[in-house]
Amino acid sequence: MRVPPFLKTTEVKRQPFINQWRSSASTRLLSSILVRLACGAAPKLRWQCDPRRRYRRRWERRRSTGMGSSRRLSWGCLPERWRGSHRGKSRRGIWEWDYESFVDVSKRVMVGRSRKQQEEVVREVLLSMLPPGAPAQFRKLFPPTKWAAEFNAALTVPFFHWLVGPSEVIEVEVNGTKQRSGVHIKKCRYLENSGCVGMCVNMCKLPTQDFFTNEFGLPLTMNPNFEDMSCDMVYGQPPPPFEEDPVSKQPCYSNICSLGNPNSPVCHKLQN
Question: Which residue among 2, 71, 114, 152 is the one 20 to 30 A from 213 at the CA level?
Fold first, then answer.
């Protein structure tokens, strides 16, 4: 049956909106979790909360402020001490976080924390986004096989587009076997927006490698290219120790990074 032209046009117009909504929703979620962890509060997702307590707090807040507003309710999800220190500067609710805000929160997490502490924050974020027992179920569904590596590479392209930008599945060699378990990120959105080597390594590469390898049981190696800001993800390949990884000797983007140290031959955020 022939499809009317107006239906085709509608579908084309809706697709960018759906992708934009998915990207902004994911960004808001990660930003709110990072803020809570940076302030020492435990991250709470909707499925982790007691519904009776959640709705009681909401009713009490509405009663004390009249009908209230969605802005007040969303702002109330953030830690009290964070709200107190930022109330005069920005009354931003969870639904107002964008990608730039997400990068800004990531930079704040870096300040005053060592490399290991930054990795631990990201690990807590990733664990908080999963239901209990998810890593164990992942290990059962995706044992470290060629099929599992290729399947996860295929999933990475659409599901991580909002975070890293356009990417494609590529053929790589793992243990002498060629397989399509590689993902080439053409120009990493996170690295481009942050302009920080330390954020790329400490809050993306290392914690993601560790999470897939140790929590999910599926080895993953990420090889960022700091010349063109591209990155290759290789599922099925165990990551090398940090001391043997070329990124451990990477200098700062001293001309674009606000946290950079032009006098250091190696990014100072990688040295502690």
Answer: 114
Per-residue pLDDT tens over the stretch 184-209: 999 999 999 989 898 999 999 999 99
Q: Residue 168 forms beta bridges with which residues?
A: 184
Could you give the angle at the alpha carbon of 231 between the alpha carbons of 189 and 134, nearest 5°? 80
Helix (H, G, I), strand (E, B) or coil at 217: coil
Nearest in space to 187 (alpha carbons), one of 159, 220, 161, 221: 161
Which pTM was predicted?
0.68
Question: Which residue ranges make up each domain of the chain?
Answer: 1-129, 132-272
Residue with tokens 């990608």: 99
Q: Which of 135, 130, 125, 132 is nearest to 41 (CA)?
A: 125
pLDDT digits (tens, 9 = 90+) for 13-71: 444 444 554 455 555 555 555 655 555 554 555 444 454 555 555 556 555 555 444 33
265-269 long-range contacts, CB within 8 A, separation 24+: 267/197, 267/198, 267/201, 268/198, 269/110, 269/115, 269/196, 269/197, 269/198, 269/199, 269/201, 269/202
How far apart, in whole angstroms, are the C-alpha atoms of residue 214 and residue 220?
Answer: 10
